[in-house]
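Q: What residues go here?
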């Protein structure tokens, strides 16, 4: 197999089996089987760690696999991008911990988010 075959960008659907935020590493199993380690190098404005069992897209950049986007489940099928107006967005729901809620409410009390 030639080097260029390894450098092609490939995109797959994969089920998340392990999430390790400390090392920015995720393990997934694509539809074809086998375990792939995925690196999290870049994060966007609406970053959320995937949960085990979710289906996400992964893609290859050079020799590394990179986390893509969540693949909508049957529950999310009611949200159609065709129904959005220009400028509207679909953002994942964010689960916060009690500590984050406390810090957020303290910021609101001090006028940081007014």
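A:
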């Amino acid at each position: 197999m030639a080097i260029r075959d390894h450098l092609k960008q490939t995109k797959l659907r994969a089920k998340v089996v392990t999430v390790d935020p400390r090392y920015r590493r995720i393990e997934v199993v694509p539809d074809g089987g086998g375990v792939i380690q995925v690196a999290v190098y870049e994060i966007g404005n609406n970053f959320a760690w995937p949960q085990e069992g979710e289906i996400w897209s992964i893609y290859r950049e050079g020799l590394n696999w990179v986390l893509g986007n969540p693949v909508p489940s049957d529950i999310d099928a009611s949200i159609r991008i065709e129904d959005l107006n220009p400028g509207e967005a679909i953002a994942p729901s964010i689960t916060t911990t009690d500590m984050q809620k406390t810090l957020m409410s303290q910021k609101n009390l001090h006028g940081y988010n007014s």
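A: Context that may help when evaluating the design: Confidence is low (pLDDT under 50) at residues 105-114. Residues 3-85 form a domain with the OB fold (Dihydrolipoamide Acetyltransferase, E2P) fold (CATH 2.40.50.140).
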